[in-house]
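Input sequence (81 aa), recorded before submission:
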Amino acid sequence: MELTHLKLRPGEEIRTPRVLLLGWQGSDFLDGQNLLRRFLLAHHMPHQDGRPVTLTTPGPEPPLARHEASFGSRVSSVSES
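Predicted structure, token format:
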């Protein structure tokens, strides 16, 4: 942002992208993934009473599986028409 030179009119805003860089070295990529998960859970997930908030949903499958299934049906119906 130091090299940005511009003028904003009253009421205008600039949103900058969020970037997360996590330094990790090692031969097992799963260690890096777990480090990223722990960081996100600790610093970017909502907490209540010191514990991460969990989502409860009706149905036997997790929310993402239901979302992917409904997304897939929409994609196939769009591509068929």
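Checked by second reader. The longest helix spans residues 63-80.
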